[in-house]
Write the structure tokens for this entry.
Amino acid sequence: MTDIAASPLQVPAGAEWKPEFNVAQATDAWIATIPAAKRAQSDAYFEGGYWIDGWGTLVTVAIAWILLATRLSARMRNFAERRARSPFRQAFIYGALFMLAIGILGLPWTLYVGFFREHQYGMSNQTLGAFLGEQAISLALGVALGAISIAVLYAIIRRVRERWVYWATGASALLMLFMILVYPVFIAPLFNDYRPLPKGALRDSILTLAHENGIPADDVYWYDASKQTKRISANVSGIAGTTRIALNDNLLNETSAPEIRAVMAHEMGHYVLHHSLWIPLATALVFGVGFFVVNRLFGALRARRGERWGVRELADPAGLPLAMAIFAVVMLLLTPLSNSIVRVAENQADAFGLEAANEPQGFASVAMRLASYRKIEPGPIEEVIFYDHPSGRTRVERAMRWLAEHPPGNNR
């Protein structure tokens, strides 16, 4: 791992700064750097993701139906009741079995989406064995964390009954905040090796950006994401003592120093603007809508089919597949809202990053690199519904407008 970026920044002729600089022409010049064939492939990949979301929801509903129609869910509940006397422990055991069941039943879909489709579009470097190994780790984590979460959820339902919606919404926010706290220190290293970035100009530049923006970090880490993917990525994650600045080796090895600074300033924007706090809170409110719908529909559906499925009441863990199916459908319908929450944060981080790094050309270049798997120019409605990040054109145009407002050599 070297200290310097692998290549110099290449700015297209039409986007270079000059007295007659034109934002629209500069934006078009950057867009034109993507060959037509690559653009068609990235459009196909991204648009296919629209169908992936819908089919993924149908897969979830199908898994729920299998668990209910075969009474497997009821049998798992009965097994838990025979092994424990406490309702909390019963829900914990059921939760572990439930997470294991959906992990196994959903494996074919996970393989297609996460492995075969990624290889089809040239996005993955991972072998099948390595992919399955990581899925095993994810399943183990899912079983452990899912069992605890499910046990807590049903404890809430037993205690407060119809008010469980409000309590579950709050618990969801706390769980997401907890994951932000522990992920960089305890979970991320299970999948990648994190090592300190060597001392030098690049490391010093990143730390200077961090300190100028009040980020309490004394080191920068890189991780070996290239063993899994061709994508570039970075993050500033954690809270308080768990804060970690990290960038992947694809970003280090394939981009220029201005691009790296642009990416890191964007990620620092998320941290400084407290997105790791308000995104989970806003997302929890979206979940709350899902919980509300589950609460309204569960009783009617259980009354019609509950005896056949072996589901007794809302507080019965055996009904969790039904609740999961309802929740999944509601979340699909609320996709525009959940995407918009993240997209607002990404827009804010973009604006912050341009001001912090003063690298508009690097920012534009990164936006074009991301075009390998993101459609560059969606329609306005398409962007609102399906995009959780600004489109490539939106980002390049923002960068070129910023450049026009902050000409090189002018004091800011």
